[in-house]
């Protein structure tokens, strides 16, 4: 083994170990924490690899017969079935299904069997993407802060935010687009280098285009990218490199949406909400969906603007501007969304995209956080965040707050009920121990024993 190979292994070993460790932790609840919204995303890779199609024709008739909510997640257009939700994320993640899809046995299975398999692969894929997001974040943080701070903040992101309770648990759009957002932020950091290679403008543009294609609200990444470019000497051609991919992505998205939905917005055709100033405090401080209730460590992102962080802030102005602008614009966009609470979910799911940006801002503010009493407050907030995310991973939806006594989608006023909120209700509901019992039954008695356990618990494997 040459010295170069040894050096490479030594260099990448910590990142590989982090990926493995997080994958084990993310899988430790032995179940996906999913919803109907993520269901089509788990099937599109199979449709693409088995049928060479973006439609869900193989699965939709079976779904209509067995799922009451199928009409809310798939629609029929031109004689074919399509997902209501953007398809870019599942298409980009389809290679992760290849090890299963290439097995000849898979192609001949019934829709029900494939759907059960897709639910398993959904969790495996989500875990892979969430763990990879943490690794990319660590690579980014190591460029401008100490190794200790970079590792600490990466663990906060990995285990103290929705990257654990949301992104690693199901194939939400947030699961796909966090990697794209981090790729854009990493490229913006490379802008800070003197005369960076032009490839970084292309990479930033491609990542922004992917994020935008995965979820339309990530359109807010484009003005953030423009601001980052404006803060450094940039040639007009560099702007073309950075924004050409997004223009191409917009054309493809518009063509697909018009063909399937008859409009350019696709399934996200809802009009902005009329109660913006009610929704804005809701996504920040409500007991059911407030970012500062579920992830109070987010407040430390403001430390990037304290005097002690001034030298680091000035040195990395494009990154500060890009991360800060996207976080702010995304919060405002979600506050304008009529369903700002995100339906049935754990915490502020719709703010998952800004979590990498908040961690980057914390890293830029680390000179202020790491000294004095702030570090103890930071540590206490981090442990609280770990507890809240673990509650969502191991207990939710025990307590069934979202649906009882009345669906939160029917009565959004419940989002402000401090006496009966998801955290308290889920804590009293206890750990979801059923998956452990089912896996134990499968280990000792095979699949029939596992199926019997499912019936005993009244659980739908789909």
Describe this entry's structure for a reader:
- The protein is an all-alpha fold and 462 residues long.
- The protein has one domain (1-379).
- The protein is built from 23 helices and two strands.
- The protein has helices spanning 3-27, 39-51, 60-66, 70-73, 88-93, 98-101, 104-107, 111-141, 147-160, 162-167, 173-191, 199-214, 221-230, 236-261, 276-285, 291-294, 310-315, 317-335, 355-364, 366-369, 374-394, 422-429, 434-457, and strands spanning 74-77, 80-83.
- Strands 1-2 form a two-stranded antiparallel ribbon.
- Helix 11 packs parallel to helix 13 (221-230), helix 13 (221-230) packs antiparallel against helix 14 (236-261) and helix 15 (276-285) packs across helix 18 (317-335).
- The radius of gyration is 22 Å and the shape is globular.
- It starts with a helix and ends in a 5-residue tail after the last helix.
- The model has no long low-confidence stretch (mean pLDDT 92).
Topology:
Elements (H helix, E strand, L loop, with lengths): L2 H25 L11 H13 L8 H7 L3 H4 E4 L2 E4 L4 H6 L4 H4 L2 H4 L3 H31 L5 H14 L1 H6 L5 H19 L7 H16 L6 H10 L5 H26 L14 H10 L5 H4 L15 H6 L1 H19 L19 H10 L1 H4 L4 H21 L27 H8 L4 H24 L5
Antiparallel strand pairs: 1-2
